[in-house]
């Protein structure tokens, strides 16, 4: 049985959408014994396939993938649940003598796994239902204004229509009487006052350490072109029919995390008649570009990442070479 090298607990590949993470992961899988742990919030949902660029049946047959299709779209999935599931998957993969390969673009999940979770109140279904009812009556911009009254720091960084994050911040306030920014500041202070001997390496989890590779572009136009190509391919593959089938279930709402995924949200709004269907492509591509920009902002806050220029020739070969150098068999 192949053994994973000494202290390398996992290798992670992060990057903005359409940066080539899947291609890099599959190339690594063809050179060594790995199993892939998906770090993509949308991939946990069953029957949400085309708009999430879910790994194909052939790719999943070639190398085992974890944390795909583990929730129904009507369910919610949290960063805390991801950390539990990912840590379990990493341990199981290592026990089989393989290298865990964490791949994805949900930066909140990466940060939660690497840095740990904030010690804040968990979601409360009753409080959430009350906030949703109030938002349905007054609108999310008004709820954003309410948040600004109790947590101006968090409100300042959220858009007035960011319903999911506004709702969560208000949940924390109602449950604890403290603003969400308080918990973030407390965590940052605790981290800054740790001694050198106790500071957590940002790439540590479980036993051993991990290495985080970041696929980043030197030319934004390259990524924008790939995003447009991907969205066009989604439309050609029947993405809109997939969204229509999800709507036809009758139990899904546009404010669910599964339906707020980029592309799905825009398609749902178009089918609701919020704007002409002819604008779907333009709006979907614009939203995906915004997502990629947010992903890059998250990545730049991770100073120990190893950057690979994904828009340069030989990028995949370079990341395979670096993985071979750090995760060779013992």
Keywords summarizing the entry:
50% helix; single chain; 330 residues; disordered N terminus; alpha/beta; 10% strand
Set out the fold topology.
Elements: E1 8-14, H1 21-29, E2 34-38, H2 57-62, E3 65-66, H3 79-95, E4 99-104, H4 107-115, H5 125-138, H6 140-150, H7 152-156, H8 163-176, H9 180-192, E5 209-216, H10 220-236, H11 239-248, H12 264-271, H13 280-300, E6 306-309, H14 315-326
Parallel strand pairs: 1-4, 1-5, 2-3, 2-4, 5-6
Helix pairs in contact: 1-14, 3-4, 5-6, 5-8, 6-8, 10-13, 11-12
Helix content: 40-55%
Low-confidence stretches: 1-5, 192-208
Strands across the major sheet, in which order?
A: 3-2-4-1-5-6
The strand count comes to: 6
Q: What is the H/E order? A: EHEHEHEHHHHHHEHHHHEH
Relative strand content: 5-15%
* Contiguous helical run count: 14
Q: What does the overall shape look like?
A: globular
Content-based structural category:
alpha/beta
| Radius of gyration, whole Å | 20 Å
Give average pLDDT, whole number: 88
Largest sheet data: 6 strands, parallel
End-to-end distance: 11 Å
Describe this structure in words.
The structure is a single chain. It contains 14 helices and six strands. It has helices spanning 21-29, 57-62, 79-95, 107-115, 125-138, 140-150, 152-156, 163-176, 180-192, 220-236, 239-248, 264-271, 280-300, 315-326; strands at 8-14, 34-38, 65-66, 99-104, 209-216, 306-309. Strands 3-2-4-1-5-6 form a six-stranded parallel beta sheet, with helices on both faces. The protein is globular and about 55 Å long. The N and C termini lie close together (11 Å). Mean pLDDT is 88; it is low at 1-5 and 192-208.
């Amino acid at each position: 049985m192949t053994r994973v090298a000494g202290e390398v607990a996992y290798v992670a590949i992060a990057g903005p959408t359409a940066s080539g993470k899947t291609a890099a992961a599959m190339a690594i899988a063809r050179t060594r014994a790995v199993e892939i742990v998906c770090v993509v919030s949308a991939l946990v949902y069953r029957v949400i396939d085309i708009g999430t660029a879910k790994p194909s049946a052939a790719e999943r047959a070639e190398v085992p993938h974890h944390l795909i299709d583990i929730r129904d779209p009507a369910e919610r999935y949290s960063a805390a649940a991801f950390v539990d599931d990912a840590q379990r998957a990493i341990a199981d993969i290592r026990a089989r003598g393989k290298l865990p390969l964490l791949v994805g673009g949900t930066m909140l999940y990466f940060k939660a796994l690497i840095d740990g979770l904030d010690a804040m109140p968990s979601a409360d279904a009753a409080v959430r239902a009350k906030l949703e009812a109030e938002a349905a009556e007054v609108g999310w911009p008004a709820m954003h204004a309410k948040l600004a009254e109790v947590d101006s720091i968090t409100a300042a960084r959220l858009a007035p229509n960011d319903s999911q994050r506004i709702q969560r911040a208000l949940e924390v306030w109602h449950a604890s009487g403290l603003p969400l920014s308080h918990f973030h500041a407390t965590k940052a202070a605790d981290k800054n006052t740790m001694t050198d001997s106790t500071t957590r390496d940002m790439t540590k989890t479980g036993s051993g350490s991990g290495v985080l590779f970041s696929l980043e572009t030197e030319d934004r136009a390259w990524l924008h072109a790939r995003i447009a190509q991907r969205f066009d391919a989604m439309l050609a593959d029947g993405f809109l029919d997939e969204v229509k089938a999800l709507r036809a279930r009758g139990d899904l709402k546009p404010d669910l995390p599964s339906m707020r995924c980029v592309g799905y949200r825009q398609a749902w709004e178009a089918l609701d008649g919020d704007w002409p269907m002819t604008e779907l492509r333009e709006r979907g591509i614009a939203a995906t570009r915004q997502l990629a920009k947010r992903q890059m902002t998250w990545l730049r806050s991770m100073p120990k990442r190893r950057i690979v220029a994904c828009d340069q020739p030989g990028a995949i070969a370079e990341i395979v070479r670096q993985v071979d150098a750090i995760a060779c068999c013992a």
